[in-house]
Amino acid sequence: MVSGLAAGARALSWYVVSSLAVLPWSFANCHLQPGGQDSQIVVKELATSVRANYMLQTADEPPAYIIAKSSGWLTGAKDVLEKLNDPNVADTINPSTYKYRTTLTLETGDERYAFVNTLMWVCSCCRRGQEGESTSLIYYAVNSVS
């Protein structure tokens, strides 16, 4: 769970599944720093482009700082997407009735975590309205250049 959210920031539950690489690190070791930015652009039939940029701080001493950038789409039938926008109903919507996919890149100048600079992550997401506007994410590491 990424913690340390700034007031008003969207809560994220990040679960790392690394099926193609064994990593000595996970998002659970990080705190989301105040600030950052996310945007959503709703287009025809309520399909939504989502983008976010955040700064993560590791629990190390001294801490490392990692920039996280994600982008993707939430798509599905208009009636399903309307229900997802209602926090009282969102949890009841079967995630197989819509697609919520993003990519993630990480960037740091800290040598201890330099390996994240060469990873690309893909994500399958699930909207959870009762968790305070949160989204559950499962990220998969899909490549490493090193």
CATH level 3 topology: Porin
The low-confidence runs, each spanning 5 or more residues with pLDDT under 50, are 1-24
CATH architecture: Beta Barrel
Gyration radius from CA atoms, angstroms = 16 Å
- Structure classification: mainly beta
SS elements, strand count: 8
Our count of helices gives 1
What percentage of amino acids are in beta strands? over 45%
- The backbone outline, from C-alpha atoms, is elongated
Mean pLDDT reading: 76
Name the helix and strand elements from N-terminus to C-terminus, one letter apiece.
EEEEEHEEE
Highest-level CATH class: Mainly Beta
Largest sheet: 8 strands, mixed
The helix content is under 10%
Note the main attributes of this structure:
single chain, 146 residues, mainly beta, Porin, eight-stranded mixed β-sheet, elongated, disordered N terminus
Explain the overall architecture.
The structure is a single chain. This protein has a single domain (12-144), classed as Porin. Helix content is 5%, strand content 47%. It contains one helix and eight strands, in the order βββββαβββ. Strands 1, 2, 3, 4, 5, 6, 7 and 8 form an eight-stranded mixed sheet that branches. Strand 7 and strand 8 (134-144) form a beta hairpin. The two termini are 27 Å apart.
Concise structural overview:
With 146 residues, the protein is mostly beta strands. It has one helix at 78-84, and strands at 12-17, 30-32, 37-42, 48-58, 65-76, 98-107, 119-128, 134-144. Residues 1-24 have low confidence and may be disordered.
SSE blueprint:
Layout: E1 12-17, E2 30-32, E3 37-42, E4 48-58, E5 65-76, H1 78-84, E6 98-107, E7 119-128, E8 134-144
Parallel strand pairs: 1-8
Antiparallel strand pairs: 2-4, 3-4, 4-5, 5-6, 6-7, 7-8
